[in-house]
Amino acid sequence: MHAKQYEITLPADYDMDVVRHRVATKGHLLDTCPGLGFKAYLMRERGVDGSPVNQYAPFYLWNTAEGLGSFLWGPGFQGLCEDFGRPVVQHWMVLGYEDGGAAGTRPVAALRHRRAVPDGVRTTDLAAELLAEARALTERDGAVGVVVAVDPRHWEAVTFSLWAADGAGGVAAADGELFQVLHCSTPELGRLARGRAW
User: Considering Cα of 86, then 182, then 184, then 96, what sign does the dihedral take?
Assistant: First the structure.
């Protein structure tokens, strides 16, 4: 599995209703995308939930490299580039995915926690720690699902979690970067491997 995300940071006075309208009119286009486990259409608003910026930052979890490739080299991503400029695409190798107790519920919030992996940390220990973190998060009220992944080029670990309305109140920006979920496309969510990804 492959996780990816791009962040489009917008001016402080940008009308974020433009982003909401974009997602409302185009978000459904990936609801049947082959190879896509899920795409969470994420947004942060300056001054809301502690966000310092206005940002559109979709997060994807792909079942297949072919699905990821067909999106990046296809008309969908090109359309985004034409509207906002080509963003840097962050990419992580997925170590695991877990359903939360609220799996199947529409997520309203997402939390991303990124951290550098220090030199000397054994990769086996890192994987075990991240997988245990994912399992622990899924036990919290309102957890929809949790992805843990690593970028081995920059040695950055990421934990990405989706939260339903009944648990989102317990998720705080102090735990990471907090996003609003405007829409979630889940064409192959049921085909994602649960637990360890290798």
Answer: positive
